[in-house]
Amino acid sequence: METTTETNDQTTVAARVAGEDIKRGDYVTVLNKIVELPSFLWSCSSSILPADEPVRLRCMPSDAGQPFKVVAVCLPFVYTKRPKGGTTAFDTRQNQLVRLDPDSGRKVWKRLRKTLEKKRK
Q1: 62 φ, ψ to 5°?
Q2: What is the DSSP secondary structure assignment for residue 49, as one 8-state letter?
Q3: β 27-38/95-99 pair status
Q4: Nearest residue to 33 via CA among 88, 92, 87
Q5: Entry pTM
Q6: What CATH number is associated with residue 24?
Q7: Any alpha helices (H) in 70-101, and if so which ranges?
Q8: Domain for residue 96, yes or no?
Q9: Of the candidates 65, 89, 59, 58, which has an alpha carbon nearest to the alpha carbon of residue 75?
Q10: Residue 103 forms part of a structural domain
Q11: What's the CA gap between 84 and 91, in Å, rounded?
């Protein structure tokens, strides 16, 4: 007797996307955030950088992976809604957005909404 198992699970990849390629209805998340600090905050850097020169740091936000649904784009701003409600605006000069696979984004979005609805009851 021979047994086979089939699964429909599939791994997808979030794709880096330029601001001009983001469109209404896309599911996006923040991959990296750019933080700018004045160079005078860095010890012993005054000989390397002018005091008014910003130092850019790339950080991973604590909510990386959180899906947001795009409602409007007016570059450099991308306006989104969250599964729990409310609107968030992203500045593409400070946030590197990635587009989620449409099926994955939709599934996670619906699951988060259901979870939040249960908590409200």
Answers
A1: -65, -25
A2: S
A3: antiparallel
A4: 92
A5: 0.78
A6: 2.30.30
A7: none
A8: yes
A9: 89
A10: yes
A11: 21
